[in-house]
Amino acid sequence: MRDIARLAGGVHPSTVSLALRNHPGISPATRRHIQRTAAAAGYHRDPLLDAFNERRLQSGQRRSHPVLAFVSDFGARRKMEASSLHSALWRGALRAADALYHRLELFLVGPGALTPARLDSILFTRGIDGLIAASFLPTTVPLRLTWNRYCGVKVECQDWLSPHFTIATDLLQGTRVAYRRAKQLGYNRVALLPEPDEHARNDLVQAGYLVEHAATKGRFSPLIAPPNIGGGKLRKWIRSEQVDALLSAQPKTGDALAAIGLPPGRAIGWACLALAEAERGVAGLLADYERAGALAVEQVVSLSRLNLRGPSSSSMITYVPSAWQDGASLPSRHLLEPPA
């Protein structure tokens, strides 16, 4: 650091230390200058020394662990905990935060809860710079926060630009697995039922469906149901297109099919593309939301240790694979009755 301080024009070694750690207390121009000087001199981080320092900091006496904000748009905590998806994200995030010597706190925004401006003020006042935006609804407007203060990650939420880092289940590859499994079970006319709301994951699901449909070289056009179709219109569309299996990310699709006289597993095959937990008799993709929540915490802590706050020059998405499970809703084709 003394050598780099001299080469950088006589700055203090402590300034070099802060600049190499990307600390916001040093101006961006000074940070860039010192980092370029260090790179030209051949400086690189020592992973063993980094590990030693991290262990020293974790083992030192602290009054409290650093706090991470877990932000959701539920009006009440009990409603969030009643959601299988969100409760799994929360459990995974809690486990990872504890393993990394951090404390996770829940912050709710939206009607009946905090406004984004109030949340921004609370986090700034308390010095919380790690934030996880957890699976917001498509109808929720983007968080208007001072993002250059935060090391932020979205989890199961791809509809906003900020924060730039995202953790999500791999719906594209998962949909391909589901389509392929339906074909293996003897289904010919496999259709896709998109989600009713305009949601970024609809694009991934449709992309996976179209890729796998093209790979099978089917003799019919892709069977993608019209948006927001339901009730009698859905029944009519299924009959007119001679659909024998339906893929959907909507967990209640099986109930909807039964309500219109097409019981899944008897009149038509059905698989769910986004199961938050195993459901008896339901075939589909079991999403590892706990792992997604844990990865979100790991990403935020990594960004915080490198002092990488605010918008990134490039976005990054980490996809978490899902596991396929067979079920009575998608049995072998010969066990099904012809569609009514």
List the helices and strands and how they pair.
Layout: H1 2-7, H2 13-20, H3 28-40, H4 47-59, E1 67-72, H5 77-82, H6 84-99, E2 103-108, H7 116-126, E3 130-134, E4 151-155, E5 165-169, H8 171-184, E6 190-193, H9 200-216, E7 223-224, H10 231-241, E8 245-248, H11 253-259, E9 269-275, E10 283-286, H12 289-305, E11 316-320, E12 323-325
Parallel strand pairs: 1-2, 1-3, 3-4, 4-5, 5-11, 6-7, 6-8, 8-9, 9-10
Antiparallel strand pairs: 10-12
Helix pairs in contact: 2-3, 6-12, 8-9
Q: Number of helical runs?
A: 12
Rg on CA atoms, Å: 25 Å
* Poorly predicted sequence stretches spanning 5 or more consecutive residues: none
> What's the arrangement of strands in the largest beta sheet?
2-1-3-4-5-11
Task: Give the N-terminus to C-terminus distance in angstroms.
Answer: 77 Å
Average pLDDT score: 85
How does the major sheet shape up? 6 strands, parallel
Order of helices and strands: HHHHEHHEHEEEHEHEHEHEEHEE
How much helical structure, as a percent, in the residues?
A: 40-55%
Strand content: 15-25%
Q: In one word, what is the shape?
A: elongated
Secondary structure class reads: alpha/beta
Q: How many extended strands? A: 12
